[in-house]
Design a protein that fits this description.
Elements: E1 2-12, E2 15-25, E3 32-40, E4 46-53, E5 56-59, H1 65-79, E6 91-100, E7 105-115, E8 117-119, E9 122-127, E10 135-145, E11 150-154, E12 161-166, E13 169-179, E14 185-191, E15 196-203, E16 210-218, E17 228-235, H2 243-257, E18 264-270, E19 274-276, E20 282-283, H3 289-297, H4 307-316, E21 324-331, H5 342-353, E22 359-365, H6 371-380, E23 385-388, H7 394-405, E24 408-416, E25 422-426, E26 433-434, E27 439-445, E28 449-459, E29 462-472, H8 482-501, H9 505-518, H10 532-535, H11 552-555, H12 561-575, E30 585-588, E31 591-595, E32 601-603, E33 612-615, H13 619-625, H14 628-634, E34 640-644, E35 647-652, H15 665-672, H16 683-686, H17 691-701, E36 711-714
Parallel strand pairs: 1-10, 17-18, 17-21, 21-22, 22-23, 32-34, 33-35
Antiparallel strand pairs: 1-2, 2-7, 3-6, 3-36, 4-5, 4-7, 8-9, 9-14, 10-13, 11-14, 12-13, 15-16, 16-27, 18-19, 18-20, 24-26, 24-28, 25-27, 28-29, 30-31, 31-32, 34-35
Helix pairs in contact: 2-3, 2-7, 4-5, 5-6, 8-9, 8-12
């Protein structure tokens, strides 16, 4: 087994130096040997490959594609696991690990250099992780340094942590434990000398409407933060007594310490009644911080929860002007005194805020909160909700929130795509742009074309506008994760609409249709009741919004643990919408597959029609796998049913055709029709090149691919 697996990459001007360290553990009582195969995807140029183990290092040798193919086929037949089919026909290198002592460990280190692909301002790093055995500890860390400013850093596959140390340097990290399987680690970053970095990636195949993801990020240091007015409305009712109140106090002190001289602040505390530090906003440069901290220290938890009056009092402290206004609302309970009707509270707050245009950010502490109330308040007033579950630290969550929104740059943003035929854009309303953040707009387009996109908004209270050119191509098959990302985000917004405003059959039907087509778990799909351990992605990404809820009514409850989890899940779909791995439902090349109770992956549209059976591991099977249009289907597992033209092909472990000649001629013709691919770069072209020359060639040709994957198996 793999005790730890660490990937570290240093990227300098698109040239990545990878260092891998794998620690293998032998749980048995005898010495063991491991042989590991590392596939090299097409389009990848590898140089300076070094393998280290047992204290010795030597230069690694790449196997030819035919040699690697023989090994791939041998592994697939022996292990009955087809995951390696993804790399069939591609080069590889292997490493032998021996000896691994009984109950002992052995480390292997691998290093290599690779040139990343750049298209325009967008640079992509792809590291395919194909791990069949469990990994106890997985760490991926990427340090990026460019001559140009780095505008945005984004992963559609993993929940990464990003730290920008300067305008041209950034560190990306991802960690996971107890990984049962893994998906490719895909990372994008953009470089730009402009005040805004803008890039678009697309997916369009055939005559179907295309998909796009637009990334907009401010260049670090180019746009000055906007002065803001911020009011903290904090629950000090009896239920907040103890650790929760102490953490809330520390959170307030942290936020106060982050105020700029131009900011203005107020603090409102409430239980049955409402009290405030000052009857008006106090500027940062005139604030007596010790006096405000003393007010916070004296807060005591007692009484009920008068949410309505507290929010109205907090809003009344704002003035009707062009300054950015933010209200941060923290509570651990339901409204119990004063106005308690949720609909009326929302109406009162919305009317009060109509002229002020304050952003309302809600923090729900624990499970006894009304998520419908908090989410509706934030949704209708330009903010978002955050939930702190029992055992989590309020202070940490507030600090992370304030780091995110503490430095607003652009507000009241709107986007226009001109003559480009785009639709179904998410988010439908753009959020404010904060320092260190980015805006992700995912949508669809009906026709290819070039056009001007205009982004408008407010900066320092004045009108602001920026325009840039983008192209939506007629054919773009590289980023196949985009359709599912778009569907996940749309489903998130549809579910939020249902949860906050009540069920509507048209919306429910739309959720079902998208969920079934793209393989996304929702409260309305038939596979929603799967056990949590089966429905949560292997890297901790849980497309299952909350698998313990078995019916839409339970899923839409306003309070309780299930309500909090549902709100968190919907927000993840709306804001992150990653290409998550999921063990029961997969989307491959735009086709959704579901794993049934017999462990057969069945493509959408299959309704028990007759199938043409092909035996797993046979000559006919590998002929299918040799066609790139089918091998991704086969990689799902040893039992798969998928369409080929007018036929349904079934891969069976026990029966079926073993030779191509046993299959109908139209199917044989389809198998032998290989899609056109770009020629693979020769390895010797990369050897001997210095780093600067390689980067220059990449910048001109924009042809050199990215990524290295590894494969392992035990003899």
């Amino acid at each position: 087994m793999l005790k730890s697996y660490t990937v570290k990459a240093e990227v300098v001007n698109q040239v990545a130096q990878f260092a891998l360290e794998l620690t293998f553990y032998n749980p048995s009582d005898v010495v063991q040997e491991e042989t590991y195969l590392f596939p090299v995807p097409k389009g990848t140029v590898i140089s300076n490959l070094t393998l280290c183990g047992d204290g010795q290092c030597h230069e690694g040798q790449l196997m030819s594609a035919p040699e690697a193919r023989r090994m791939y086929e041998e592994i697939v037949r022996r292990t009955k696991d087809p995951a390696l089919l993804e790399y069939l026909g591609e080069r590889a290198f292997q490493v032998r690990v021996f000896p691994i002592p009984p109950k002992g460990e052995q480390k292997v280190k691998i290093s290599y250099q690779q040139v990343l692909q750049r298209a325009g301002n967008l640079v992509e790093l792809l590291y395919p992780i194909t791990a069949q055995k469990p990994i106890e500890q997985l760490l991926v860390q990427v340090r990026i340094r460019e001559d140009e400013p780095i505008a945005s850093v984004y992963s559609p596959t993993h929940k990464i942590s990003v730290q920008k140390t300067s305008e041209s340097e950034a560190t990306v990290s991802f960690e996971a434990t107890q990984v049962q399987s893994a998906q490719d680690f895909r990372l994008f970053y953009t470089v730009s000398e402009k005040e805004l970095g803008v890039d678009v990636i697309t997916y369009r195949v055939g005559d179907e409407d295309g998909y796009f993801l637009l990334l907009v990020s401010p260049a670090q240091g180019e746009i000055a933060p906007v002065p803001k007015d911020i009011v903290f409305v904090v629950d000090v009712s009896g239920s907040m007594d103890g650790e929760k109140l102490q953490q809330a106090k520390q959170s307030l002190k942290y936020a106060i310490g982050k105020l700029s001289p131009q900011d203005r602040v107020a603090v409102v505390a409430f239980s049955d009644t409402v009290t405030e530090f000052s009857a008006q906003l106090v500027s940062g440069d005139g604030l007596d911080r010790s006096q405000l901290e003393a007010f916070v220290d004296k807060l005591e938890a007692t009484g009920g929860t008068n949410i309505n009056d507290a929010l109205l009092r907090g809003l009344s402290l704002f003035e009707s002007n062009d300054r950015l206004k933010m209200l941060v609302f923290l509570t651990d309970g339901l409204p119990t005194t004063g106005e308690t009707d949720v609909t009326q509270i929302v109406k009162n707050v919305t009317e009060k805020n109509a002229q002020l245009n304050a952003r309302i950010f809600c923090f729900g502490v624990g499970y006894d909160v009304n998520t419908i109330l908090l989410d509706t308040l934030s949704e209708q007033n330009g903010g978002f909700s955050t939930y702190v579950e029992p055992g989590e630290n309020i202070e940490t969550e507030i600090a992370q929130f304030y780091e995110k929104v503490g430095a607003p740059l652009l507000t009241d943003l709107q986007i226009s795509f001109g003559d480009l035929k785009v639709y179904d854009l998410y988010p439908p309303k753009l959020p404010d742009l904060f320092k260190g953040s980015q805006i992700q707009i995912v949508g669809r387009y009906r026709a290819p074309g070039k056009g001007t996109v205009a982004l408008t908004g407010k900066r320092q209270g004045a009108d602001w506008r920026s325009a840039f050119e983008i192209e939506l191509p007629g054919e773009s098959a590289r980023y196949s994760f985009l359709p599912r990302m778009w569907a996940a985000r749309k489903i998130g917004y549809l579910l939020d609409e249902i949860r906050l405003k009540g069920e509507n059959q048209e919306l429910v039907d739309a959720v079902k249709k998208l969920a079934e087509k793209f393989g996304i778990v929702t409260p309305y799909t038939s596979y929603f009741a799967a056990p949590p351990e089966a429905a949560v992605g292997p890297l901790g990404h849980a497309p299952c919004l909350t698998c313990e809820m078995l019916s839409p009514p339970a899923a839409m409850a306003p309070s309780g643990q299930s309500a909090v989890r549902m709100s968190q899940g919907i927000q993840a779909l709306r804001e992150e919408a990653r290409e998550f791995a999921q063990s029961l439902v997969r989307s491959v090349r735009g086709l959704s597959f579901q794993l049934d109770q017999d462990n057969i992956w069945k493509a959408e549209g299959y309704r028990q029609q007759p199938t043409l059976k092909v035996q797993f591991g046979s000559e006919a099977y590998f002929a299918l796998a040799g066609n790139s249009a089918f091998k991704e289907y086969l990689a799902l597992g040893p039992a798969v049913i998928f369409p080929v033209g007018n036929h349904w092909v079934e891969i069976s472990q026990s029966e079926g055709a073993t030779q191509l000649g046993q299959l109908p001629q139209p199917l044989v013709k389809a198998i032998r029709t290989e899609p056109v691919t770009q020629p693979e770069p020769k390895l010797e072209e990369a050897e001997g090149m210095n780093t600067g020359l390689i980067a220059a060639i990449v910048g001109v040709l924009i042809m050199i691919g990215a990524g290295l994957a590894f494969w392992m198996w035990r003899r």
